[in-house]
């Protein structure tokens, strides 16, 4: 292969395309934003690469050589295909046939998943959805592709993840409706430590900030039960003296549905941020962009989203 041809760049091909269409060096230089002398040097390189004059002077202008005529259409196609590589394909949800795996808590499964399934059936009937319970720290499953999208709680995003902030609120203490602590306006540290705790592991890191705070004082709470599901925790809390530390918006909703109550934590002020997150390898995927935006929109539209949360661009 001619070394000059092998070294051609995309910029060379665009220059050649412009020259073949305009057949005029001064007009082509103006369109390309370069001097006519610079364009003349580029034309000399192109002639060397194709081993052909390409543009042949005739009178005060140029005509295309026979070989240059044969290059016009193939060159146009090559440039269009290269452009298509750079830009994501136009996505039509109605024609999408893809399986997505979404991971979150059973709370999200109960209150938001039905909205998502209804939207998929209406807008993207060919899409299938797998739902898993998200456990704190499962970020390797996003990197491997085993999970496409997750909703979770964390203070700082791990490397190689992108996300949108769904909302933020404070952590509160959830208890049964007639629990002794309901007589208080807020829960003190001594009162908090006087009872056993139910730790809900599914859906993200809800309460390790409490353990860090206590450890710094040489203290620890008593974890009587750890479960991945809100539904199990609700039953245990409702039938006993146990406490659970959860985001306020979840506590409010659970108290509307079950004989439970909640009180603010009087000894620590901690804002919890909950996100929809994905790995950076899916950042440019048109299909994935549609799904994550749909999840975000449905969360924000539902009564379970926090209306005051911030929402960075996807």
Describe this structure in words.
The protein has about 325 residues and is of the alpha/beta class. It has 13 helices and eleven strands. The protein has helices at about 5, 10-20, 25-30, 35-50, 65-85, 105-110, 115-125, 140-145, 190-195, 210-215, 230-240, 250-255, 285-300, and strands spanning about 55-60, 60-65, 100-105, 130-135, 150-155, 160-175, 195-200, 220-225, 245, 260-265, 270-280. The strands form three sheets. Strands 3, 4, 5, 6, 9, 10 and 11 form a seven-stranded mixed β-sheet that branches. A two-stranded antiparallel ribbon has the order 1-2. The chain has a two-stranded parallel sheet with strand order 7-8. The radius of gyration is 31 Å and the shape is elongated. Mean pLDDT is about 85; it is low at about 305-314.
Mean pLDDT: 87
DSSP summary: helix tally: 13
First and last CA, distance: 45 Å
| Helix-strand makeup class | alpha/beta
Uncertain residue segments: 306-314
Strand content bin: 15-25%
In total, how many beta strands?
Answer: 11
User: Shape from CA axes?
Assistant: elongated
| Helix share, percent | 40-55%
Largest sheet: 7 strands, mixed
User: What's the gyration radius in Å?
Assistant: 31 Å
How do the SSEs run, as a string of H and E? HHHHEEHEHHEHEEHEHEHEHEEH
